Amino acid sequence: MAKARVQYICQNCGAVSPRWQGRCEACGEWNTLVEENTAGGIGGGPGRAPQKGRVVELHALAGESRTPPRIASGIAELDRVTGGGFVRGSAILIGGDPGIGKSTLLLQASAALAKKGERVVYISGEEAVAQVRLRAERMGVSAAPVALAAETSVEDILTTLEADRAPALVILDSVQTLWTSTVEAAPGTVTQVRASAQAMIRYAKQSGATVILVGHVTKDGQIAGPRVVEHMVDAVLYFEGEGGHHFRILRAVKNRFGATDEIGVFEMTGGGLREVPNPSELFLGERNAAAPGAAVFAGMEGTRPVLVEIQALVAPSPLGTPRRAVVGWDGGRLAMVLAVLESHCGVKLGPHDVYLAVAGGLRINEPAADLAVAAALVSSLSGIALPADCVYFGEVSLSGAVRPVVHAAQRLKEAQKLGFAKAVLPLQSLDKDQGGAAGLVGIDQLAGLVAAIAASGPPTGRPAAREPGGRPAERRRATIAADEP
Ligand code: TYD
Ligand code: MG
Fold first, then answer.
1. Beta-bridge mates of residue 300
2. What residues flank ligand 1, with Cβ below 6 Å?
3. In 3-state terms, what secondary structure has residue 204?
4. 282-459+471-483 — its CATH code?
């Protein structure tokens, strides 16, 4: 008989440790290691004699398959993110910071669905029935026949749901408040959250109802505890937004029934969330086109083109190690663009602080933003404003070459629709999609863009970013002084 082997498994991240520790070395969480006996498990060597299993039916890949039956929520931006509506019998986790508007969004979706005649049950574990009613009143959806309860016990919730016809949608706000008597742990702990979520997900599969679990996110961006829930559910959506801004972005990070790169855009108003069908207009709304350091990036979010302003501020640094700060973009990617500007385009950014922000609080993941970032940086350093009616997109490689990006035609179309007459894009994208139409400038080297910006500056002794040996810091200060009345 083999000796039983004991391992300690982190309930937060799943890391395995040979001995107990107060803190998981992998994810840094405290008190998450739990003893598990692995003898007889996969790779665990000979343990218990295996029980005889039954023969399961094996299927071919090809065969009859129906498209999953979906219920459109009636909120277009939400349906876009879920891939065309809620799939019956699926479980969805919606994560986000407290106060971002998760409950508001779900109450609105519940009301819209209930008005269409579907049975919707909204279980609030955080707010009393009166509070939810008050919110519904404020949003003007009180008349919708949503079944409401304030409850946290999984057993009570399941018994209640099973007592009537199966609902189309069940909302559990939030998963951290749920508790089940089958496990002995406090509500909110990983064990409780996992067991409760499992019970509710099982209910979804059995009844055909769509179950939505709301989860709060910790400061570092992880759904607290429910990390473990992420792989159990069919879809994980994040609801995010910047503190000072009114609009919110719903983003799919996992979706078994649809694409994960779609975003839904909403605006928080006094009467609930308003859909924003054309986000570009919103993101460009507060633009000051005449200021140096701003470039409009023609990006793609899933299948939808989105124009957004990239803002850069390059300022002489008093520090030995200049500061680099980024909001809404990848810091590593910024370092790369800075390095390419320095070594291939003769732009001296070394002794400067560099700040970069994506306007409006949008977060961009596309490498296609490289060119717009470079344009904004050069514009800020040289003090030369970029043309107000021009968009930029293209990926920059480490060699300083500008590489083609996908969906060039769609990006250009969106730009044209919003009144942008010019575009700077990769030469190869230009060849493929447009036969060199007026206003389109194709470039294959980043140095070409830098030279064009420098040449576009007024001839009144304005500093050119590319002047070898130039001291942009002093020159820029002189320019600003001369500009101010
Ligand atoms: P809420 O949905 O409670 O957030 P979560 O469930 O993610 O914690 O949103 C609360 C915030 O939304 C609160 O700060 C007030 C604001 N809000 C509005 O601005 N307008 C509204 O109509 C509603 C209902 C909320
Ligand atoms: Mg809430």
1. 305
2. 96, 98-104, 135, 138-139, 268, 270-272
3. helix
4. 3.30.230.10
